[in-house]
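ARCHIVE CARD
Drawer: 12
Card no.: 0347
Subject: one protein chain, sequence and derived structure
Cross-reference: see card 0346
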Amino acid sequence: MVQWKMSRIAILDTKIHPGHLRCKKFYSYSVCGEPEKEQAQETSHGTVCARVLDYFTSDYELYNIQILKNRRNTDEKPMGEILHLKKGMQLCLELDVDIVCMSAVSSFLSDSNVLYETAKELSQKSILLAALDNKRYMTVPASYPFVTGVQSDIKDCLAPGELAYNAIDLFGAGMYANCKIGLLFELSCVPSNSFAVPAAAARFNTWKNKGSHIEMELENLRPYPAYGIDEEITFKREQGFYKELPLAVFYVTKEADVYAVCQRAMDELYNKYFVQSSVLCNMKSGTDIRFRKLESIANLKQELLFMECCYKTDLLFLMVEEHNREQVRMQVEADLEITLHGDRIKILSEEGCAKGRAKDLSDLIYQILQ
């Protein structure tokens, strides 16, 4: 007979005040350098997350891993460093936790270089739940395929605590959870993706406590009527989150030949100039979340518009094969057109033609767009 084991649930957030919680055991750790004498606040972000979890489930051990320092006033949003999120996940590996809740996430996709390997390793041992950015940008680690990305019930069609799923979610964050409970309003909070994560984790814990097969429970979830791409674009525009971005088009014979060149240029643009960039291409993205797969050249304009609305980026690359050049030009106007010949590149822009070595691509792009 298999012995039942109480779930160990970790919340990676601010310090948690355990006063109102029913968890069987409570452990607290800090990886963000906050002095131990700092007291947990009863209305801290992490405490609210813990109380939402506790509202919907019982029989669990809670591991509070502080990755965000306490806010100094009620209007201040707790901010953290991406290395602290990585350290928090590494500590989860050491503590052997079962469920990891991450509401403090990043919409700066270059942060994936810091998080990816640790998140992948942790996913082999634990259930990872992470919030989509509350302003609905592509998010790490929520958009990783091995992480359960969670969104709030934005259409208000679920009961409190109920889950639903969208298998083809635009953000790769297909779990939806209703966290609309009186407790949030009592604490002067509103439902959000952040608080949907502990609501979803509570359901996972209840399944584990009942001895259910989680994969089967997930398969039985009803589909969520998520926004389509046009609805998402309209929503983001209405919220004021749309901005037109410069577009650099790579015309290539084979995408595989330019993939590494583009990836290196993106890394250097960020590391040297703090310029975030993302790519739309025909290839699968592999492990780089900044690459989005283009399903059809006919939908090119729509896909680029989605990325302008939903990727927190400063520059867009489009990678297409040379024979599609005219079809691309009919749909979009590029700021830069880039071709690669061996280790040499040529860049066409309003300023004329620039030539150089492939390894200098980031510097050339930055100079032209200034």
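Annotation on reverse: The chain has a mean pLDDT of 92. The first strand starts at residue 7 and ends at 13.
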